[in-house]
Amino acid sequence: MEETFTVTIHSCDNSTWQGIVVTPQGERSFRSELELILILSDSMQTKDHSDPG
Fold it and tell me: Which superkingdom heads the taxonomic lineage of this protein's source (predicted)?
């Protein structure tokens, strides 16, 4: 499976990234690298469950 995400980093405050990620489900903002990883993981799992093949 291949997935494309667009990540825009707006700032780096408190030694972590803040920005916006565009996934197939839409645009979401994130306040840390961990939150970014969770959004990407959730997007990939949602794709797995909706893909019958």
Answer: Bacteria
